[in-house]
Amino acid sequence: MILADAGYDCAKWFEVSDRLGMKFVAAVNKRNSKDFSNVKNILRIKNMEFLRSEEGQKLYKQRTKIERLFGKLKGEYNLEQVRLRGFRTYKKHVDWIMITYLIEVYIQKIENCKFSFKYTWNNL
User: Fold this and answer.
1) Per its UniProt record, what InterPro entries does this chain match (predicted)?
2) Secondary structure (3-state) at 68
């Protein structure tokens, strides 16, 4: 299953996911459809119905967890604005960021405290 925000609410994403045998769930983009009557694609209609269900609403709320993680990785670990060349170099950078993030989570667990690279002592 793929959870996406409203920016990905378009028939092509639903069709590609369906061909790959995956369920694609995206919030309804208000610019693409005001209500059910405007939507012609059957996969988008099913998506809209699913999002109205209790299960769909619970599941879609889970998407915010990954959004917060990406926000943290981009903001605190400089994942987004990196000047590196080549896939291998960038992959190593991402791997080190993930290892560092997991160490941070581990420290938080064992010390039962909040740790962040935003602290002033870390900006030396």
Assistant:
1) RNaseH-like_sf, Transposase_11
2) helix
Tokens read off for 111: 């010390």
Percent of the chain that is helix, strand, coil (3-state, to 5): 60, 5, 35
Q: What are phi and psi of 31, to 5 degrees?
A: -70, -30
- The answer to whether the CB of 27 falls within 8 A of the CB of 51 is yes
- Identify the helix (H) or strand (E) that includes residue 105: helix 87-111
Taking each continuous run of H as one helix and of E as one strand, the counts in the chain are 5, 2
Domain positions in the chain are 2-61, 78-123
Q: Three-state DSSP class for 95?
A: helix
Q: What does the pLDDT look like over 46-95, one tens digit per residue?
A: 888 898 899 988 888 888 888 888 888 888 888 877 788 888 988 998 89
Structure pTM? Answer: 0.57
